[in-house]
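Give me the fold.
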Amino acid sequence: FSSLSCIFQMGTTQESYLDLFPLDTIVYLTPDSENVLEDVDPKKVYILGGLVDESIHKKLTLQRAQDQSLQTARLPIREYMVKTINTKNYHSETLAINQVFDVLSTYYETRSWPAALKAGVSSGKGYVLPDAVN
């Protein structure tokens, strides 16, 4: 067990998170939110908005959260990282669920968004920390 096992509780259930937690404690993480996640609050429940699909559907997770009247937030990628020049001219703030988890767990351990984003956002996404720009 890591020190995070006490911080992040995971499990599976047939029940909806809407039935398990008070609405005001739920924060739905989606790259399309206008709200920036500034800190991880241990009293909040973070839903990692994700789809198992080959293609990216813009604003689908945001729409789902809004339909459920949930708070939303996005990782502070734009605030701490810069777009890098790449051959595909590709830049995406959409991460896989495991990458989002890596970012959140690293942030919780270090309290450093740069360290957390470095741990979870691969350079293939087209973003790097400013000190990594050549």
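The CA atoms of residues 12 and 20 lie 12 Å apart.
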